[in-house]
Structures are given as C-alpha cells and as structure tokens.
Amino acid sequence: MLLSAVQRFLVLGIEFVIVMLSAVIALEFLEGFKIATSEYYGLRNAGHIFFLLIFITFSPYVFAFYVVVVSPISWILRKYVPFVIARVLVYSVGCGLLGSWVFDQMFSNYMIESYHLNRATSIWIFALAGVIYAVVENRVIQRYKSRAENIGISNKV
Q1: Residue 138 neighbours by CB under 8 Å, 6+ apart
Q2: Domain count within the chain
Q3: Per the confidence metrics, is the pTM higher than 0.90?
Q4: CA distance 93 to 82
Q5: Fewer CB within a 10 Å sphere, N or C end of the chain?
C-alpha cells in the first residue's frame, strides 16, 4: 500500500511538472513571439535550446512547488471534496492565479506595455493546465483504487 502511494505521488508529480512546463512553453510561444528585441531571450532568440533551459532550470522548482503546495491541497481536496467538478474548478482557478504570477516573472512591465502582451492569455493557458492536471489526477486515483480493489487491499485515498 505504501509503495502504491509513493508511485501515485511520483506519477502525479511528474505529470504536474510536464503540464506546467508545457504551459510555460505555450505562453512563450503565444506571447513571447511578440517580443522582437535582443533584450529578451525566448524561443525566437534561443531557439530549441530554450526547451532545454526551461526543463533544466525550472523542473526542480516546479516539483518542489508540487511537493510543498499542490500535493497537500490535492490530498485535502480528495479527502473532503467528493465532486470531481469542484476539484477541477479549484485547480483551474489556482493554476490561473499561478499563470498571472508566471506572466509577471517572464515579462517586464516595459515589454508588456511596448509589445502589448496580454496577461489573460497566461491565465487561460494555466487554467487549462489546471483542468488537464485535475482530469489526469482523477484518472490516476481511479486507476490505483481499482488496482487496490482487484488485489483486495482497502486503499483510502
């Protein structure tokens, strides 16, 4: 039972990292391409190295964020909120707020005003990432529940 909990934790952590880094890359693709200056190194200037930089630089921080913030919230939601749609709503709103913060970290005020970058794009991208995470989390939890029932273990999630 402990092994399945650790496996579930790692699977959900890796899935969270993949979804969030994909959201950062989508934000860079949609908003970062508007910036045509050498002051900002994004996909346009750094090319394919940008993917490697994003993965190497931000993966540990995103996983740490998952461990410290998302995992306890996820556990509390699974324990006290029986409705999947409510959890989807909480994840999408939370990730949308995270998207606003990521937008502020990626782009300076000068670039936002000069290149007419839109914060709502970031909020929507990350809200969609939250929905994707909630759906995959629900599928993973259901899979581990059914696996535990098949073996005969009572696994309270």
Answers
A1: 84, 87
A2: 1
A3: no
A4: 18
A5: N
Residue 94 CA to residue 109 CA, distance in Å, equals 23
| Angstrom distance (rounded) from CA 70 to CA 97 | 13
Give per-residue pLDDT as tens, 87-120: 999 999 999 999 999 999 988 898 889 889 999 9
Q: Count the Cβ atoms, other than its own, within 10 Å of residue 88.
A: 18
**Would you say residue 157 lies in a domain?**
no
For the chain, the farthest-separated pair of C-alpha atoms sits apart, in whole angstroms, at: 61
Contact 99, 123 (CB under 8 A): yes
Q: Which residue has tokens 């999408």?
A: 92
Buried/exposed 144-154: b ≥16 CB within 10 Å, e otherwise: beeebeeeeee
State which residues form the domain around 13: 2-151
